[in-house]
Input
Amino acid sequence: MATSLQILTVFTFIFISTTITTAATTTTAPTPSQDLFYSPSFLPAVFSSLGFQELSTATNLSLITTATPITIFAPTDTALFTCRSCSLPVLLQEHSVPGLYPLHALLSLAFGTKIETLAPNRCLTVTSTSTTSYAIKKAFINGAEISHPDLFNNGHIIIHGIEGFVSHLSPLSCNVERMTSLSFPQQSATPDFSIMRSMLKDAMLRLRISGYSVVSLALRAKYQELVKLRSMTVFALDDTAMFAGGHSYLPNFRFHIVPNRLLRAADLVSLPTETILPTVESDENLLVTTGGSGDPLAPMRINYVKIQSLDLLYNNRIVVHGLSTPFPHLHHPSSDNGFGQTERTESDAGEGVSEIVAPPPRIEESTMEIEDQHALGGTPPNLTENQMIASISSQKTKPKKLRLPSIESRIDESNRIKFF
Output
């Protein structure tokens, strides 16, 4: 009996000792994965395996640390080629945010949420489609669609693939613009329609914080009409130019929008001279008067107006180019190609002065079109926001034009014809 009790005691002691030793070993031994997180070669290897070769080479120069959890919105190599002047290490910092944001977390954020990036004072804007179905709901980062969500997620690093155009973030990207006052009509939530709604909201938000608040209001006023488009190209004036003499822009806002065409900088400058661009204003077209040859001494002009800033803003459905003055309406007398003599009206540049660019026609009886600012209902710069929106919304017909009787003319030394 004593012998059996002694044997049982020995076995119990051995079992307890083994359990304690195993537990101590388990709690003190580091796991291989933890060491791997802090390895300098870990993130480049992940990027390379996922097909992001450009980001893989830029990782070591971006000073990104994996010591804390991060989420990376990775542009494809093709997307990075659209911004050849961009610094890849800086772009990587600007597309990396501290913390873990899987797709379901991004979709739950409020529209227009700002997330601070690893780049100082730079923020990404998160938007999403308005549909309630997660199966078709999409998220966007600064207007670029998250096309490949949760490509990599090991609980410490999340990588999303984004498809679209990328550029460096603005110093104003962290400014919070409140959108609570905006009210948008509810429409059927088909995927294409929902995307256009999101892209319009994104464009309005970014325009308002970039010095184009009047154009943002104009987009809001024409929202019901524009949301039905598949895409659009907008030519915009900033607030300073608007109030410094561009008063004819608002009444002619629809004349500055090319519907269902996403004309990025490369597409626009490739258009040859005399290309006709339709506008939202029915029966009113824009004309490429100087093609984009790349010569700085002969910049691209549409309706004789220089395109001041290409690719001012863009997302998957909308691109905005900057102008310094509104487009004038061109009068095209009948000819074989529809563009014989081109008559240019500059309602902002001078009082009742119109120019015809050489070659000048033979002078006989002539007429000219001028835009009556009072008939147009030109919006003065001191209107309130609601009055401005009402003014834009009321422009449903073509601007009223006056036809003047025959008038005298003379030719100056520069071979231009001036009417008085």
About this structure: Residues 330-419 form one domain. The CA atoms of residues 64 and 93 lie 7 Å apart.
